[in-house]
Amino acid sequence: MAGEKQQSALAKALQALKSLQDEHAVAVVHGSEVLGAGHTRVLVENGFLEQVIKGWYIPSNPSHAGTTVTWYASYWAFVAAYCTSRFGQDWCLTPEESICVASGATVIPKQILVRVGRGSNTVQPLLHGTSIFNLTAKLPSRIEKDPTYGLNVYPLAEALLRCSPDFYVNHPTET
C-alpha cells in the first residue's frame, strides 16, 4: 500500500511539473510555492528536480543523476530567471559575456559576472563549480533582452566598444 501511495504522489507531482512547464515553458523552478512543498520534495527525492541553490530547482532526468548534462542545458535559463528575480531589470551581463552570447558561443563560464546597479559584489556558488558574481557597476544606457535565453545584455555595438582590449586577442572568433 505504501508503494502505491508513493507512486501516486510521484505521478501527481510529475503532472504538476508538466502542467507548469506546458503553461510557462519553465526551465527553472523558483521556490516550492510554485509546485507546493510536497510535490517539490517528491520530485527532488525521485531525481526529477535538482536543487541549484536553496529554493531554486531545475527539472532533471533521474537517469542523468550525477552528471552535468541537466545543469549545462539549463544554465542560461537559470541565470536569466535568478538575476531577474533578485535584481528586477536592474542587471545585465558584462560587455564580454554579452558578445559571447550574441556570437552563439556555447562554453559555460566557471564564473559569470553580472553588472548590477545596486549589487553587493558577492559570489553565489552554483552547481558543478560554477558561480555568479554580482558586480556593482554602471549599467548601459539601454539594456537589450537576448531572444534565445532572455538574458539582459549590452547592445552589441556598445559591448564591442566597452569590452577590454584583451578580449579581442583572447576571443577572436566571438568578436
What can you tell me about this protein's structure?
The protein is of the alpha+beta class and 175 residues long. It has seven helices and nine strands. The protein has helices at 2-24, 32-35, 37-45, 69-87, 95-103, 156-162, 165-170; strands at 29-30, 49-53, 56-59, 91-93, 111-116, 122-125, 131-136, 144-145, 152-153. The protein has a four-stranded mixed beta sheet. Strand 6 (122-125) and strand 7 form a beta hairpin. The relative contact order is 0.13. The mean pLDDT is 91.
Radius of gyration: 18 Å
The computed structural class is alpha+beta
Shape: elongated
Helix content: 40-55%
Strand order of the largest sheet: 4-5-7-6
SSE pattern, N- to C-terminal = HEHHEEHEHEEEEEHH
Strand content: 15-25%
Strand segment count: 9
Low-confidence runs: none
Number of helical segments with 4 or more residues: 7
Distance between the termini: 61 Å
- Summarize model confidence as the mean pLDDT: 91
Note the main sheet: 4 strands, mixed
Secondary structure blueprint with pairings:
Elements: H1 2-24, E1 29-30, H2 32-35, H3 37-45, E2 49-53, E3 56-59, H4 69-87, E4 91-93, H5 95-103, E5 111-116, E6 122-125, E7 131-136, E8 144-145, E9 152-153, H6 156-162, H7 165-170
Parallel strand pairs: 5-7
Antiparallel strand pairs: 1-3, 2-3, 4-5, 6-7, 8-9
